[in-house]
Design brief:
By secondary structure, the chain is α/β, with parallel strands linked by helices. Helix content is 32%, strand content 14%.
Length: 257
């Protein structure tokens, strides 16, 4: 083996004590293979099992935390306790091959196809239509609904713990709901969840806080919490690198893995 590649096979230990056998991680990749009811298919489980032998950690494709957050056909769900057996099947298949299993948790926001959410009711930070998906303009979430979605990220984290996952990754990237709150393009709110850069960060940071709170309450063993972000976006006005550096500073204070 070329000497420069050897460090890739060194182990890595997170601050929380979880040890990875090497530095090779399978990134979250959408496979559009789940059942219509949101449960995983046997083919999907086999897909993950085949790829879990050798890498130290597998981050799953994203799973929706509420029924109105389903972002694409063939996405698996984690929005109710009825989904725990499905989630457990996925976590077990990954871990049986020797990799840590991390569940990516998400809400599609204004990028959700209307036919996949109840009553076609697309929601987002504000009623600004996506430039990436011209299907339908979203409805702005009420303050109470914002709190409910934050709580749903926590409940999905609890289900991940109960299903045997080793951690979760909060999906704050790719133009989905968490990024929609952070973006000046999609967030035109004038309440506690929008306006200044600091207020646009409030929703992402509240989700992190809730996930961390639930982890501390329910996880008996060390549990990984990560956050995925997109540094910039093409829309005008959109997220800039300067905005993202502010977000990173705030996330760095949250003791994420």
């Amino acid at each position: 083996m070329n000497e420069k590649y050897k460090p890739l096979f060194n182990s890595f230990t997170f601050p929380n004590g979880i040890n990875l056998k090497n530095r090779l991680v399978m990134a979250p990749m959408t496979n559009f293979s789940s059942n219509e009811d949101g449960t995983v298919t046997d083919a999907e489980v086999e897909y993950y099992a085949r790829r879990s032998n050798g890498v130290s950690m597998v981050i799953t494709a994203c799973t929706y935390v509420t029924r109105n957050g389903k972002g694409f056909h063939g996405e698996f769900g984690a929005d109710s306790d009825e989904m725990i057996p499905s989630l457990r099947k996925l976590a077990s298949a990954i871990k049986a091959e020797g990799a840590k299993a991390v569940l990516q948790i998400f809400h599609g926001g204004r990028e959700c196809p209307p036919e996949l959410v109840p009553n076609g009711d697309i929601v987002s930070a504000s009623d600004v239509q996506s430039e990436r998906n011209s299907a339908k303009a979203p409805r702005a979430l009420t303050g109470e609904e914002v709190e409910e979605i934050i709580a749903a990220f926590g409940e999905t984290t609890r289900r991940a713990v109960e299903a045997g996952f080793d951690g979760v990754e909060i999906h704050g990237a790719n133009g989905y709901l968490i990024q929609q709150f952070f973006s000046p393009h999609s967030n035109k709110r004038d309440d506690q969840w929008g306006g200044s850069l600091e207020k646009r960060m409030a929703f992402p940071l509240a989700v992190v806080d809730e996930v961390k709170r639930v982890t501390a309450k329910h996880a008996k063993d060390p549990f990984i919490v990560g956050y995925r972000f997109s540094p910039e976006e093409p829309e005008e006005p959109g997220i800039t690198m300067a905005d993202t550096l502010e977000l990173i500073d705030a996330l760095a204070e949250k003791d994420l893995d």
